[in-house]
Amino acid sequence: MAKPAKKPAKKPAKNPAKGPAKKVATKGKKKLLKRGTAMPLPPGIPAPAAAPPPPVDPAASALQPFSVAGAEATILDALWRTVETRRQAGDVANSHSARLLARGTAKVAQKLGEEAVECVIEATQGHRTATILESADLLYHLVVVWVDAGIKPEEVWTELARRQGISGIAEKAARPKALVRAAQTTKLP
Fold this sequence. Notes:
It is a single chain. By secondary structure, the chain is mainly α. Among the domains are: 72-151, MazG-like (Helix Hairpins), CATH 1.10.287.1080; 153-189, no CATH class. 47% of the residues lie in helices and 7% in strands. The strands form two sheets. The chain has a two-stranded antiparallel sheet. Strands 3-4 form a two-stranded antiparallel ribbon. The longest helix is centred in the C-terminal third of the chain and has 22 residues, at 128-149.
């Protein structure tokens, strides 16, 4: 007597974008678990609470001032002194500034660029509070760049003072052509 033909085993469904499904044993049975879905938790372990939704930035907040008593531009001078002190101490285990500076100029500059992009994104989306927070991050990382380059804030303030009363268009036109060639751009003049 001939044996009945075996049914071919079904292969797990594949989603080419996500990869193959995974077989998971549950109480003597094997089930397919689609990629990207959560694994079942063992008995007695509670599921973690779902993350709360991000805070809403209501349109009314754009009209509210964001102020802290005593905050002023001199905070940048104080921040520079703090970052410079941390650089000199070199305590990479306890100081974010020292750790960042120890990673070198390229990493310091990369972080400044990342913060600039994050600030631009928040500003273009009209998120006032987030733009303030990202601006603070951007200024901090700019100060770290200054410390890394040996630039003191008063050097930047002097350059800003020199530019006062000069049209931005006139200032750009007065830049030496060698600077434009070195920057390899036509955007400067």
